[in-house]
Amino acid sequence: MRRLQIDYRAFPIILLFIILAVIAVSFYNIKMEDVSKLLKNKEFLYSVLFSLQTSFFATLFAFVFGFPSGLYLARNRSALSDIVDVIVDIPMVLPPLIVGVLLITFLKSTYIENIYTFIFTPSGAVAAQFIVALPLIIKASKSSFELVPQIYETIAMTLGSKPCKAFYDTTFKIAFRGIMSGVVLAWLRCMGEFGATLLIGGGIPYKTENIPINIYINISSGDFSMGMAASVLSIGIVIIFVVIIKFLTIKRF
User: Is the pLDDT of residue 116 over 90?
Assistant: First the structure.
């Protein structure tokens, strides 16, 4: 009897078609005049630009701190590393509003305010998204590095490579796909961050208003059609940028 063989490589394509079908159905329920009006809305366009800027810098800072932190947690087994690992998990399980409350309490302290004011500023929005994105990159880096035996670096060094080059040619290149998956996930999380960004940034129009806050303002004010149109357009924007990122980074390694 012939066994039924399933080509699992087709699953991502099927999933993509399902997502596109959902978007198409959503567009069907939206009036084109609402989409046209939204594309001409300066406040929405600003929120898109603001989301792209803050998510980019938050993800960049999270990568700068998360990449070495993940490497440290993967290479060191001690009580300190276990404590750090638990602390990293906390922002991932707490509701974003609680993360925002804790962060605003910290940023409003006298020591921090004497150095720089984060509350109700774009920098505050970046800080809120940074806290949310950092654990994702740390976890992705840690898991990716744990899968690469250190013996590869040792072999490379015995063949004449310096430690940094041996690390880059072996461990980093092997773990790169996993790390970049975490970076993309962190960036998407920053793009959709609402609770902490609203508390720290304030959601001020033309200053600290990102896409989720813009959608919330439209729906809460009773303009549901504009909020729905903004939601669908946001999905399209995210898909476009994810495809671009994967093409420029992951596919090259």
Answer: no
